[in-house]
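Weekly structure sync, notes
Attendees: PL (lead), two postdocs, one rotation student
Agenda item 3: pending single-chain targets
PL asked that the sequence for the first pending target be pasted directly into the notes so everyone works from the same version. It is reproduced below exactly as submitted, 97 residues in total.
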Amino acid sequence: DAELWPLLLEKAFAKHVGSYWRLAEGHPAWAMEALTGEPAVCFRLRDDASFWVEDRVAYPISAKKCDAFLESTGFQTSEKGLFQRLLKWHDEKYVIA
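Predicted structure, written out during the meeting:
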């Protein structure tokens, strides 16, 4: 049996942001924040590969939320520190993707 709810959810979300095209240009972290109602963060490896840097979803002043972008929180951690943080969030039932 084909499930229709993902298609309906996508259509409702596209209507919320103005169009399907606006969905395609958004950042996945913003989508997670919008769908869960919880703050979303991303981690990226620094250019010199020495630390993982935390970014959070930020919103431009007087713009639509779908115009969100990522900005650094200033938090940096080692690979081991990142893994420990992910384990903690897993134990606290956070959505991890």
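Discussion points:
- The helical segments are 5-17, 20-25, 28-36, 79-91.
- The CA atoms of residues 87 and 93 lie 10 Å apart.
Action: rotation student to compare against the earlier draft before next sync.
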